[in-house]
Amino acid sequence: MRAIFINGSPRKNKNTAQMLESAMKGAQEAGAEVEMIHLTSLNYKGCVSCMACKRTGNTCGGLCIQKDDLRPVLEKILAADMLVCGSPIYWHNSTGMFRNFIERLFFPILSYNNADENGAIKYLNKKMPCGVIYTMNVTPEYYEHFHYHEILEPVRRQMESFFGYCEQLEARNTWQFYPDYSKFDARAVDMEQKQWYRDNQWPKDLQAAYDLGKRLVEKAKEE
Predict the structure, then answer these.
(1) End-to-end CA distance of the chain, in Å?
(2) I want to staple 85 with a disulfide (CB 3.0 to 4.6 A). Which of 6, 14, 21, 211 is the partner?
(3) Can you give the pLDDT at residue 111?
(4) How far is 156 from 207, CA to CA, in rounded Å?
(5) 131, 211 in Cβ contact below 8 A?
C-alpha cells in the first residue's frame, strides 16, 4: 500500500505541510508506505500543449510525455494506491505550482473519445482514493462571500472522475504571519479571532487531516 502526498506550498513546514504531515501520519499508522513530495523543490512547467498525449495511437497511457523534474513524480502517482494533494490559497485559488501540477496530471488522462459506463472520459483506467487539502487565511464569512466552494470544488470533482473517489478538506482562518503578526503590516486582522482559531480550530483541522489519511488507506484496502 503506497500513498503519495503532494505539497503545493512554497513552504515545507507551515500550515499546508503540517496538514499533509498529519494526513501522512494517519495513513502510515493505517499501514501505508508514505512519501511527501514538495513541488517547490522541483523544476517543471505546466502543460505546454504539445498534444502528444492526444495523438491517435499514442502510448502515453495517461502520463505526460514531458521529461523534467515532475515526470518521475507523475510516474509515482500513477503507480500509487492513494494520493493526497495540498495547497494554500493565494488570491482566491491554489498556488501556481499546484495548478501547473494539476494540468500535467489531469490533461494526459483526459480523452476526447466517448465516455465510459461511469461517465468518465479518460485514457487511464485506475482506481485510487484521493484527497485534496486547502489551507487559507480567509474567515468563513469571506469564504462564503467570494464563493470559494465553487472555485475549489472542480479539482476534487475531476480527481474523483479520474480516480474513482476524492475527499476535500479545508482549514480556514489559518495563522498566516506565524508566529508574530506584529512584525507585519496587518492591522486589519482581528487578532483575538485569529488567536482563537489557532488555539481551538487548528488542532481540530490537524485531527481531521489525520483522520482523512487513515480513512483513505482503509478505502484503498477495499478496492
Answers:
(1) 11
(2) 6
(3) 87
(4) 21
(5) no
Cα separation, 87 vs 107, in Å, equals 19
| Mean pLDDT for all residues in the chain | 93
Question: What pairing do the DSSP bridges indicate for beta strands 164-171 and 128-135?
Answer: parallel
Give the Cα separation of 43 and 149 in Å (integer): 30
Could you read off the pLDDT of 31-65 as tens digits, one per residue? 999 999 999 999 999 999 999 999 988 999 999 99
| Distance separating alpha carbons of residues 82 and 66, to the nearest angstrom | 23
Q: Considering the domain 2-222 in this protein, what is its CATH number?
A: 3.40.50.360
143: confidence class by pLDDT, cuts 50, 70, 90: very high
Per-residue pLDDT band at 155 (split at 50, 70, 90): very high
3-state helix, strand, coil in the chain (%, to 5): 45, 15, 40
Nine cell digits for residue 169: 478538506
